[in-house]
Amino acid sequence: MGGPVATFSVWDYVVFAGTIVGAAGVGLFQAFRGRKENSSAEFFLGGRQMSAVPVAMSLTASFMSGVTVIGTPAEAYLYGTSFWLFGIGYVIMSLVTAEIFVPLFYRLGITSAYEILYTGLVIYAPALALNQITGMDLWGVLVATGAVCIVYCTLGGLKAVIWTDVLQMVIMLAGFVAVIARGAVLQGGLDKIWEDAGQGGRLETFNFDPDPLKRHTFWSMTIGGSVTWMSVYAINQSQVQRYISCKTLRHAKMALYVNMVGLCVTLSLAMLSGLAMFSIYKNCDPFTNGDVGSTDQLLPYLVMDILAVYPGIPGLFVAAAYSGTLSTVSSSINALVAVTVEDFIRPVWKNLSVKQTTWLSMGLSVFFGALCIGMAGVASQMGSVLQAALSIFGMLSGPLLGLYLLGMLFRTANSIGGLTGMFLSLVLTLWVGIGGQLYPPTADKTNPLPLSTTGCNNTLQSNMTTEAPRTTSVTHPCVRPPLADFYSLSYLYISFLGALTTIVIGLLVSMITGGCKQGKLNSQLFVRKSDLVCFSCSRKSQVEFCSLNQIIEKKISASVTHPLDAR
Questions:
Q1: DSSP output for 406-438
Q2: CATH level 2 (architecture), domain 10-381
Q3: Could you say which DSSP state residue 470 is in?
Q4: Among the residues of 34-137, which ranges form H helices?
């Protein structure tokens, strides 16, 4: 194989457009059907009447976005199945978040500073797919994506976002299944795909090398991956809003465990899609052969190569990537609006009416949607969309996760220690993360797997084998600065580094400045033994959770703030 492939047919455009319009329509219908009043609780929290399953699917879809649809198969194609170990990280993250953070999250004020940049990256990912498959202008796709999200997020609020996510999750999974099924037919079965992957070195999953500079090892995927995803699911505003929207604490915890299963299923399908792609292109790598301009366009290229004979199926795949993006972008916009209104506007203008708040929220949805479209331009300069997304989480959410853990677990911590630790940790993670972008790790740290173009019809060099692209970053190693090796720290450890630095420095500074000076601490602001029981919530706990309505609406008496805020 190799060379140009087919482009979108009329039926592909019909399926794509119909899927996107249908998904947005379902979300808006569900939002307006169940809306009892035009209030901020309805707009931000869906009336707090959501059940576990739709919230779980929404949790999965929110961060299994176009980044996952585009980036994870390319990861399996280039580096093999080590990324599959993220499944262990998902399990650890779900346990810790459900049993430690969820019982406390509605007592904390959450602000997510990195939401806008990550959302820009998410918009950029499917734009690459549409650009590769349809030839549509990249910026035209970016603006269209943001516009669609702005419409149904502005009109429908969180309930529209959640119900749209449900349909979009199904579409994403269907897109992966179509690629795997067609690949298995062409290659002679899943056994053949697995055999080719083994011969190509793609099945060497377990690498127990303790070197933290190695890109992917068992330890970086389990330890670093767990902390990275914990910073996403435990303290991220758009995820916490979903927990709050559940009927009860039990439904909130159950949503996380169902979400854990959804994450693992999505990851497995994405990895199998990447292995199928390698089996098909094992002798003719489209990137090395010049058929695609970026490794993130490999899967869209494959779709048009093997599925164009079935009109409408390529349209379904693009809808899958696009649906993931709509899910994440709409979630992020809703979260950004909620944070702005509840934490910045209401404390200053306390007498805003319900109608004024609703119109203000809609206006902010338009503003943040436009801002996220602009951030997509920044994201386009960050390399592989998958690694870039996880690096953003690490750099900016790791220190924030450390701050919350410091306040939840250590009674001696005070606000001076917490803020000092978080600030210095943020400086450190940004230094390492940006340094890694400027001086990416060399091939001995990233372990690229060989790619071949020996079977390409238009290849001039008939016996050409290359390493995976974009792994050796510096042509002349002598120009690398002395700290370049430190910049090679696995991107999965950046979040762990940030959280640990915040906690250690926070505790030291707190002890130096006299520790917590409060005479009496509210025990409900810390992790309790009763929080660590999965579904055996007492009646008292259920009543406490239901009081969330008043807590969020009043936005905050001194007894329900973060422990560090009270010191």
A1: HHHH-TT--HHHHHHHHHHHHHHHHHHHHHHHH
A2: Up-down Bundle (1.20)
A3: S
A4: 40-45, 52-63, 66-79, 86-96, 102-105, 115-134
CATH 1.20.1730.10, the chain: domain bounds? 10-381
CB atoms within 10 A of CB 183: 24
Judged against a pLDDT cut of 80, whether residue 186 lies above it is answered with: yes
Count of beta carbons in the 10 Å neighbourhood of residue 121: 27
Give 466's strand partners: 451
Phi/psi of residue 50, nearest 5 degrees = -80, 145
Q: Please answer whether residues 60 and 256 qualify as being in contact, where contact means their C-beta atoms are separated by less than 8 angstroms.
A: no
Instruction: Give residue 552's pLDDT.
Output: 40
Nearest to 317 by CA among 330, 328, 303, 327: 303
Q: Which of 26-30, 280-284, 409-413, 441-445 has the lowest mean pLDDT?
A: 26-30
Alpha-carbon distance of 57 to 171, in angstroms, equals: 12
What pTM, to 2 d.p., does this model score?
Answer: 0.77
pLDDT band at 60 (very low <50, low <70, confident <90, very high): confident
Backbone angles phi, psi at 452, to 5 degrees: -130, 150
Asked if 271 contacts 84 with a C-beta cutoff of 8 angstroms, the reply is yes
Ranked by mean pLDDT, the top range of 472-486, 494-508, 519-533 is: 494-508
Mean pLDDT, residues 540-566 taken together: 41
